[in-house]
Amino acid sequence: MKVHNFFAGPAILPQPVINQAAKAMINFEGMNLSILEISHRSKQFEAVMNKAVSLVKELLSLNDDYEVLFLTGGASSQFYFTAMNLLDDGETASYLDTGTWSTKAIAEAKRFGNVEVVASSKDKNFNYIPKNYSVPANSKYLHLTSNNTIYGTQLHQLPATEVPIVCDMSSDIFSRPIDSNKYGLIYCGAQKNMGPAGTTLVIVNKNMLGKVKREIPTMLNYETHIKKNSSFNTPPVYAIYVSMLTMQWVKDNGGLKAMAKRNQAKADLLYGEIDRNPMFVGSAAKEDRSLMNVTFLLKDDSKNDAFLEACAAANCVGVKGHRSVGGFRASIYNAMPIESVEVLVEVMRKFEG
Amino acid sequence: MKVHNFFAGPAILPQPVINQAAKAMINFEGMNLSILEISHRSKQFEAVMNKAVSLVKELLSLNDDYEVLFLTGGASSQFYFTAMNLLDDGETASYLDTGTWSTKAIAEAKRFGNVEVVASSKDKNFNYIPKNYSVPANSKYLHLTSNNTIYGTQLHQLPATEVPIVCDMSSDIFSRPIDSNKYGLIYCGAQKNMGPAGTTLVIVNKNMLGKVKREIPTMLNYETHIKKNSSFNTPPVYAIYVSMLTMQWVKDNGGLKAMAKRNQAKADLLYGEIDRNPMFVGSAAKEDRSLMNVTFLLKDDSKNDAFLEACAAANCVGVKGHRSVGGFRASIYNAMPIESVEVLVEVMRKFEG
What we know:
In chain A, helix 1 (15-26) runs antiparallel to helix 6 (237-252) and helix 7 packs parallel to helix 9 (338-352). The first copy, chain A, is an alpha/beta fold. Helix content of chain A is 34%, strand content 17%. In chain A, the strands form 4 sheets. A 7-stranded mixed β-sheet of chain A has the order 2-10-9-8-5-3-4, sandwiched between helices. Chain A folds into 2 domains: 15-252, Type I PLP-dependent aspartate aminotransferase-like (Major domain) (Aspartate Aminotransferase, domain 2, 3-Layer(aba) Sandwich); 254-352, Aspartate Aminotransferase, domain 1 (Alpha-Beta Complex). Chain A starts with a strand and ends with a helix. At the A-B interface, helix 1, helix 3, helix 4 and helix 6 of A face helix 1, helix 3, helix 4 and helix 6 of B.
């Protein structure tokens, strides 16, 4: 029986990707070897890496100023990595505080320079995205979290500023077209909308680099990895391969415009039911609702366990909300078919009785 | 036709491990989901992590002072990570220089404290392991590389010192029993003898930690990962799973004593042919020969291409030597069956003509 996978991450991947990646575990590119057993210097893996890089550039329409890296350590490592490489002692970077991950990024950046928190939605448990703040013109960058997985909020418009944006796109990369020229650096853990756990995508405008005076360990310097096409040391071969397949699937299915349309349709269906069904209420401000992570509550929370049981009975998994928000969260990333959202909506309708 | 996989890393894995890992790609633990699609907080993955940790402890007979971590970034990241966490400004650490990887570890450690290089085999292109050096008693630790993948040398005896040893065991972890109490910290990239590329094993004696005064970013502090059982952020789920399966295979096949015996038999067979066959010569000093990476040369190197062609014709892949040494290298890790070594030896015999 088909499972409807609403996990927040690691999360659903396209079934054709899973099938091809499983085959490559046994026999990759006709080598009669598993992809896990081949050299990262083999021409077969170099082709995977080059394809992964070119798909990122193509899907996001990046110009030649941008370098694409596949690193490790997750977005949590980029919290310090970005500041270490971009922000010198005494310089200022601006941060928008929209939840747990922004807050952690702020804490790590403070080790390296001055941090200006331009606005925060902490006053309402991060259930909205602050607007109408000003960004100091002397900021080296403005750090944003484009989608807040825990709270179900998403930035639908970039602030008007000339300051280059550094953005944690872990949970909505490749979910919609972006204006890539506005970004100095984009990073994301792969395991939500790009691939499996185990690799971290970094897209950096070369003009941002080489400007800090501090000494940086070799492996923590973006320039090390740029010079070696992410193969200075052994990269996470399989995670990059599966990410490449997933990006190819995005391209084959119409690219980011088509993804945005599908994602909007899925979100409309689910938010529509949340707003229609008198038992439920959405937990994020309507204008800031995420198209990736839909958070909602039962007005009578004594029925929470019963609703989760109803979800389980319909084979909907991963619907329990994050402890910071409570209630429910349905993550409906690119790979989620609308049919699974329809099943969840049906569970909600039946639960109304 | 079966491929005989002599790649240095990523390298051969046991076939039963490959088969089980491929099945988990489609349906993990009866969940009807790929292991790539499930939460790292699920009880199913937590069981994998706990099993991986307990297998490390059991195989290496670690006492309760040792913590086991599954991180990312490779041994190359541990070069700075170890010094950043263990060596304070003004303190001294000793390093034995046995090749490229030691040399890189030395360069990174110098950013954090005083580095005393106790001995080096650079004078002979690292074809031997220095002995009879003394280790300054005030050293915080002595850093060793237990096996030098590129040069085909291996430490067969630890130096007599009371200083705790920090050891890069990337290419011979789990290949033989070790006296674990001598080690303050052990690290290794998984992709040679432990699993696939994508995770880095760190074993640390808790008594080594918490003694430096510098401020350390959250993700670069071993204590962060100890407190959260390597799940402070999303760990590299699949690489840890396949490593766990590989360690289970080691245990099921007799543990480290049995591995050492098998590895000795394979190495004896191959070194025996190198020493017998008048066309070949070993490139490492006999007493320091590695049981994992067997390096050898043709006395007439104009025949190199012809020998590689003969290897390819017998389906032996990955035999070309590293450019720093030239000639040939056959990596014969735990998972390498003696039958594959027999095939390579037969190629060498026929090549003699």
